[in-house]
Amino acid sequence: MTISISEIFHSIQGESSFAGWPCAFVRLAGCGHGCRYCDTTYAEKPGTEMETDEIFEKIDEIGAQLVEITGGEPLLQKEVYPLMERLCDRKEKVLLETGGFLSVAKVDQRVHKIIDLKAPSSGVCNKNNPQNIELAMRSGKAEISSFEFKIVVADREDYLWARTMLTDTGLAEACTVMLGVVFGKLEPERLAQWILEDRIRVRMQLQLHKYIWPPEMRGV
Ligand code: SF4
């Protein structure tokens, strides 16, 4: 069983409630969703076919306590499901970062799921999979949920979309919702101001790795 891998690297987790922790990233190749602000378009290129044991070797070399499966869109490759199960069995803390177009229903329950909700300016807002919100709403209290959602906003329209969606669904009461800016498109201060004015229940985040390293740098 092989998985098409774009890159495996060691970095600082930059975009979730785990931001700041050293992490081994396994980036699977392939996506095709075409989000306007995609910053990993290189993951669209064909990857290197790797056996699960080879992937484990690389993760062991890195030696981080935290492992993140990302992409591209990692859920496009069915082999990713047993990979995540085996990682959880090895007692690693496993994060999954997914674009949110595919359901996470079959993902091992031990995996912490970071799911994008694409705002209008991404051009793919209509592809958000509603089942992921339903699953999160049924999953229990925010403090113990293995779900978290991530929204990046480029302008006021995106922010208002997020605010309405959160009001309509009650999602922020069921799990953590991270709200950030599209890097270089919206000043973080403006987003902070809107969040504080409206008193919405979200956690603001910046893409930490883009402040530590050059924003266009790969493998971080
Ligand atoms: S889902 Fe992620 S990897 Fe795929 S196009 Fe959108 S931002 Fe890029």
Supply the CATH class: Alpha Beta
Arrangement of strands in the largest sheet: 3-1-2-4-5-6-7-8-9
Could you give me the name of the CATH homologous superfamily?
A: Aldolase class I
**The biggest beta sheet, please?**
9 strands, mixed
SSE-based structural type: alpha/beta
Portion in beta strands: 15-25%
Shape by Cα distribution: globular
User: What value does the average pLDDT take?
Assistant: 95
Number of helices: 7
**Uncertain regions spanning at least 5 consecutive residues:** none
CATH architecture designation: Alpha-Beta Barrel
- Say what the CATH topology is: TIM Barrel
Which small molecules are bound?
iron/sulfur cluster
Which range best describes the helical content: under 10%, 10-25%, 25-40%, 40-55%, 55-70% or over 70%? 25-40%
Assembly type of the shown chains? single chain
- The value of Rg in angstroms is 17 Å
The arrangement of helices and strands along the chain is EEEHEHEEHEHHEHEH
Number of strands: 9
Tally of distinct domains: 1
Distance N terminus to C terminus? 27 Å
Features:
binds iron/sulfur cluster; TIM Barrel; 220 residues; lyase; S-adenosyl-L-methionine binding; alpha/beta
How would you describe this structure to a colleague?
Homodimer. Substrate binds at residues 12-14, 27, 70. It is an enzyme of class 4 (lyase). The protein is an alpha/beta fold. The protein has a single domain (2-212), classed as Aldolase class I (TIM Barrel, Alpha-Beta Barrel). The protein is 29% helix and 24% strand. It has helices spanning 52-62, 80-89, 130-137, 156-169, 171-174, 188-198, 208-212; strands spanning 2-12, 22-28, 48-51, 66-70, 93-98, 112-116, 147-153, 176-181, 203-204. Helix 2 links the parallel strand 4 (66-70) and strand 5 (93-98). The protein is globular and about 50 Å long.
